[in-house]
């Protein structure tokens, strides 16, 4: 029941992304990295159910990819800032650098883990959302790992 998991994940605050760094050639810092400061809501959520893994003790892991808007900060050399026409906000960091922040849309690949009550339902092709809610331990759903940003 992907729709139920999508609904849950799109309402979940992805705290595992807080203060993570990511890199991209377009980030004008010395090392092309930025640190995530604010996190939006996951969108375009896709589950890779064909690669679901059983962890034992009724826990299953499902790979997932999603897009998420974030605000990230990075240090930019003052001379580089003045030479280019950037439109992000800055504040003085030190004599040579500004602390800048900008919005980015990231594609994240992660793994979610959830616990199911295998004994509470009969296996069949489709499981209704009501039945799905009964077999999934909502409190058990968590992000197990962030594999790529």
User: Which term fits the overall shape?
Assistant: elongated
What is the oligomer described by this structure? single chain
- What is the helix tally? 3
Helix content: 10-25%
Taking all Cα atoms into account, the compactness measure Rg is 20 Å
List keywords for this structure.
8-stranded antiparallel sheet; mainly beta; 15% helix; 149 residues
Task: Describe the SSE topology.
Elements: H1 2-10, E1 21-23, E2 33-39, E3 43-47, E4 53-56, E5 59-77, H2 78-83, E6 89-92, E7 97-116, H3 129-135, E8 136-148
Antiparallel strand pairs: 1-2, 2-5, 3-5, 4-5, 5-7, 6-7, 7-8
Can you describe this structure in just a few lines?
By secondary structure, the chain is mainly beta. Helices cover 15% and strands 50% of the residues. The radius of gyration is 20 Å and the shape is elongated.
Question: Can you walk me through this structure?
Answer:
This protein is 15% helix and 50% strand. It has 149 residues and is mainly beta. It has helices spanning 2-10, 78-83, 129-135, and strands at residues 21-23, 33-39, 43-47, 53-56, 59-77, 89-92, 97-116, 136-148. The model has no long low-confidence stretch (mean pLDDT 85). The longest helix is centred in the first third of the chain and has 9 residues, at 2-10.
């Amino acid at each position: 029941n992907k729709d139920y998991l999508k609904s849950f994940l799109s309402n979940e605050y992805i705290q595992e992304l807080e203060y993570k760094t990511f890199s991209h050639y377009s980030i004008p810092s010395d090392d092309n990295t930025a640190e995530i400061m604010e996190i939006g809501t996951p969108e375009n959520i896709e589950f890779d159910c064909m690669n679901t893994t059983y962890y034992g003790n009724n826990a299953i892991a499902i790979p997932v990819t999603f897009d998420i808007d974030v605000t990230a900060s990075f240090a930019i050399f003052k001379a580089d800032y003045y030479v280019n026409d950037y439109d992000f906000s800055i504040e003085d960091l030190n004599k040579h650098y500004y602390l800048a922040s900008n919005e980015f849309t990231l594609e994240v690949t992660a793994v979610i883990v959830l616990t199911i009550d295998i004994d509470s339902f009969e296996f069949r092709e489709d499981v209704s959302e009501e039945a799905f809610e009964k077999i999934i331990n909502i409190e058990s759903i968590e992000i197990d790992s962030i594999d790529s940003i």
